[in-house]
Amino acid sequence: MSQLIRLATPVDGAACAAIYDPVVRDSAISFETDPPTAEDMAARIADYSKVAPWLVYEEESSILGYAYGSKFRPREAYRWCAEASTYLAPEAQGRGIGTRMAQLLIELLRLQGFQSVYSVIALPNPASERLSKKLGMKRVGVLPKAGFKLGEWHDVAQWHMELNPATANPPEPKSPVECDAMPEWQALLDAANSA
């Protein structure tokens, strides 16, 4: 069976939107209320990929999942922090695919020079909390009743992992474009697909 984790391009927008659509429509896992279109998702891939990797999992030429890093918050002092998100099609769940993508994402974020990575999880979401714990993240807080969706209030858990030491003069995180020329970057991508 042909399997590949690779960096996404805007062409993958429709496949990512199809995976995300039921998450938005039918659950409180995402606090978005209107599913993004294929064009919206393609624009997100292009925009987010300037800051952090957006990965897709492809099996027999079909995209069954994606994971991406993004800015944790927009203000400048947060620029050493990234947020990680992972979404899977139903047929990909429970197979370790999300773990593989998230582990690769974290290592790429570490190589870029991010100091911390966060997961922000609307509750209840035991699968995402299990994944965060499996990755070595620590639950650092809960925002009570942070969002109202599908007729209910939902708490939001925040999970954290330090990627690089917090120093007095941290170097700026490198962009994915800058990292693409680094042998370590390609080695991480290659290693994710040799397992």
Write up this protein:
With 195 residues, the chain is α+β, with helices and mostly antiparallel strands. It starts with a strand and ends with a helix. It has a seven-stranded mixed beta sheet, sandwiched between helices. The longest helix has 16 residues, at 97-112. The chain contains six helices and seven strands. The protein has one domain (3-173): Aminopeptidase, CATH 3.40.630.30. It is globular and about 50 Å long. 33% of the residues lie in helices and 30% in strands. A hairpin with a 2-residue loop joins strand 2 and strand 3 (62-71). Helix 1 packs across helix 2 (38-48) and helix 3 packs antiparallel against helix 6.
Key descriptive features of the protein:
195 residues, alpha+beta, Aminopeptidase, 30% strand
**End-to-end C-alpha gap:** 13 Å
* CATH architecture label name: 3-Layer(aba) Sandwich
- In spatial order, strands of the major sheet run 1-2-3-4-5-7-6
Count of folded domains:
1
Radius of gyration computed on alpha carbons: 16 Å
**Total beta strands:** 7
| Helix-strand pattern | EHHEEEHEHEEHH
CATH C-level class is Alpha Beta
Task: Give the arrangement of secondary structure elements.
Layout: E1 3-7, H1 13-26, H2 38-48, E2 54-59, E3 62-71, E4 81-88, H3 97-112, E5 116-122, H4 126-134, E6 138-149, E7 152-162, H5 176-179, H6 183-192
Helix pairs in contact: 1-2, 3-6
Report a brief summary of the structure.
This protein has a single domain (3-173), classed as 3-Layer(aba) Sandwich (Aminopeptidase), CATH 3.40.630.
